[in-house]
Specification:
Elements: E1 6-10, H1 14-29, E2 34-38, H2 42-45, H3 62-69, E3 75-79, E4 91-96, E5 104-108, E6 123-125, H4 129-138, E7 143-145, H5 151-160, E8 165-169, H6 170-175, E9 184-185, E10 198-203, H7 207-214, H8 219-234, E11 243-250, E12 253-261, E13 268-276, H9 280-292, H10 295-306
Parallel strand pairs: 1-2, 1-3, 6-7, 6-8
Antiparallel strand pairs: 3-10, 4-10, 5-8, 5-9, 11-12, 12-13
The structure holds the ligand NCc1[nH]cc(CCC(=O)O)c1CC(=O)O.
Residues 79, 81-82, 151, 168-169, 171-172, 195-196 line the site of ligand PBG.
């Protein structure tokens, strides 16, 4: 197809590198040559600030967006959940790869008995408002503490500090072979929109690339993550909102569920909706509108906007 080497932009964390190499391996199977170009983002460089305070949107993607726009790379590989719902001018998501396990998991430093002891005040490390809000809803006596950094850094910090556990994405641990650390799968916790999926971005004027990269596209993952991200966008969540959204395909139906909590976990609003796959396009809007009809939802959203900390 007359391609030169496809330059793949990626962050340099072990997880990001795994994801970029995964894309490279897929392209190689179709006869393409690739090279990885490592780029540091604000999210990698500033490690002492909780993510929600780093300006939130795009901290892991902006430097890669700029590299695409300057034509220093042909594509950029991201965890889809790190990509803001508003795509920058001139760029497009051109493929979404098959989703890995979407669940959140607990890595406990000691044995995880404390989960069943209602009197024990555990300290759980997470900087995610979504994880924190849902966790405190389930375990109101626990305390949260901030933790930042890539998967390896966070596991190290958990071991160095006197915390009881930390919450991770199963997908991140599985991809880098660290899933042996998992103490519990949090089936009750609703994941971040697009958690576990990898997305490829490119400039939007590269139809040649669209065809090549499109070979890696996974239609069901794309459909489900579109519903989740649209829901996030309508609720104007941004990546730091205490909002979970998850869709899966089951027997021709899209099964969707979402949750919004207050930061302290005291208030929690859930929605669940099933629709035939033909109607998936309108599903997120309907679910979001139904949520916004509830006073509690509007109260929680107002509180978050006023006080993003
Ligand atoms: N917030 C950073 C981030 N972005 C994507 C993943 C995990 C992989 C994925 O969700 O695809 C992680 C780490 C985590 O949440 O533990």
């Amino acid at each position: 197809m007359g391609f030169k080497t496809i330059r793949i932009g990626t962050r340099d964390s072990i997880l990001a590198t795994w994801q970029a190499e995964h894309v490279a391996a897929g392209l190689k199977q179709h006869g393409f040559k690739t090279e990885l170009v490592f780029i540091k983002t604000e999210g990698d460089q500033v490690l002492d600030t909780p993510l929600p305070l780093l300006g939130g949107k795009g901290v892991f993607t902006k430097a890669l967006d700029d590299a695409l726009l300057r034509d220093e790379v042909d594509i950029a590989v991201h965890s889809f959940k790190d990509i803001p719902t508003q795509t920058p001018e001139g760029l497009a998501v051109i493929a979404i790869l098959e989703r890995e396990d979407p669940r959140d998991v607990l890595v406990a430093r000691k044995d995880a008995d404390f989960l069943t002891d209602p009197e024990y005040t555990a300290t759980i490390a997470t900087s995610s408002h979504r994880r924190g809000g849902q966790w405190l809803g389930q375990y109101p006596k626990h305390r949260l503490t901030d933790i930042r950094g890539n998967v390896h850094t966070r596991l190290r910090k958990l071991n160095e500090n006197n915390w009881d556990g930390a919450i991770f994405a199963a997908a991140g641990l599985k991809r880098v072979g660290l899933d042996g650390n998992i103490s519990a799968y949090l089936d009750w916790m609703i994941p971040a929109p697009a958690q576990g999926a990898v997305a490829v971005m490119a400039r939007d004027n590269r139809p040649d690339l669209n065809r090549a990269i499109g070979l890696l596209h996974h239609a069901t993952t794309a459909l489900c993550t579109r519903v989740e991200r649209r829901f996030l966008q309508v609720l104007e969540g941004g990546c730091s909102a205490p909002l979970g959204a998850f869709a899966e395909m089951y027997g021709g139906q899209v099964q969707f569920k979402a949750v919004l909590t207050s930061l302290d976990g005291h208030r929690r609003e859930e929605i669940a909706m099933n629709m035939p796959v033909e109607h998936a396009a309108s599903m997120a809007d309907r679910a979001a509108e139904a949520m916004m009809e509830r006073d509690t939802v509007m109260d929680i959203l107002a509180e978050i906007r006023k006080d993003p900390e």
